Amino acid sequence: MSQTSATPVTRLAVLLSGRGSNFMALQAAIENGDFPAQIVLVLSDRPGAAGLDAARQLGLTTVALPRRDEPSRRDHEAKILAALAEARTEWVCLAGFMRVLSASFVAHYPRRIVNIHPSLLPAFPGLEAQAQAIEHGVKVSGCTVHLVDAGMDSGPIVVQRTVVVEDSDTAAELAERILEEEHQAYPEAMSRLLSVPWRVVGRRVFFAPKKKL
Ligand code: GAR
Q1: How far is it, in rounded angstroms, from Cα 164 to Cα 139?
Q2: Which of 48, 76, 154, 186 could be cross-linked to 70 through a Cys-Cys bond (beta carbons 3.0 to 4.6 Å apart)?
Q3: What CATH code is carried by the domain that includes residue 166?
């Protein structure tokens, strides 16, 4: 999709704690014109996160806010909110951000915070979702992009993609194949959320059907 000057460009902040491959997938999709957005801030709770380095190399604004520097979770979240506000953030994408956000934080961006998780939620929330899937013996796993509420890896589902679990899979092998799907799913979800009218009914996200030409 090509953008014109009339297309409103959504200001996204990405929160991450590690490698940042989902952040890079979002940035690549934006550069490709897949959806009209710009990443105005990449913020991490871990100053050494590889994703922060990658963002700096792209010339993006970055901020590191370690939790240990703040006396409480509330103070930490207040600092994050201040950084988001300073960047005039409209939407927040959690991309491997390993902290659960409080209800009051989420209320600052109602239905404008999105997360990706490496399982077919509601199965296997939390840490090491891929190892949980193997241990449980599921034959299919995958990834989920969802709107964030105050729970952990909960909130209305936007996009899911599946991956077959092979008998020989280690958690790392399964994680690698799921990650490939994550890199498709996150841009797809953002593209739909920012380009198509949608509404939430109960836990269900409904997108308006495509108009016939
Ligand atoms: C991804 O697999 C993401 O789904 C997961 O962390 C990884 C981050 O990788 N997130 C969660 O488990 C959230 N509960 P990345 O830094 O390369 O994007």
Answers
A1: 6
A2: 76
A3: 3.40.50.170
The helix (run of H) or strand (run of E) holding residue 24 is helix 21-31
Q: Are 1 and 82 in contact (CB under 8 A)?
A: no
**Range of 194's domain?**
115-213
Q: Among residues 76, 117, 146, 183, which one is catalytic? A: 117
Task: Using the 3D structure, point to which of 64, 84, 109 is the last residue of a domain.
Answer: 109
Model confidence pTM above 0.85: yes
Query: Does residue 212 sit in the same domain as residue 138?
Result: yes
What atom in ligand 1 is closest to the CA of residue 21? 17
Query: Looking at the structure, do residues 122 and 64 belong to the same domain, yes or no?
Result: no
Residue 76 annotated among the catalytic residues of the structure: no
One domain for residues 65 and 164: no
pLDDT of amino acid 210: 74
Total domain count, the chain = 2
Question: What value does the mean pLDDT take over residues 188-208?
Answer: 96
pLDDT of residue 6: 64
Distance 79 CA to ligand 1 centre (A): 23
- 38 and 105 housed in the same domain: yes
**Residue having the nearest C-alpha atom to atom 5 of ligand 1:** 96
| pLDDT reported for residue 5 | 54
Where are any strands of DSSP class E within the chain? 10-16, 37-44, 62-64, 91-94, 113-117, 140-147, 157-164, 198-201, 204-207
The pLDDT value recorded for residue 150 is 87
Q: Measuring CA to CA, which residue among 154, 162, 158, 166 is closest to residue 186? A: 158
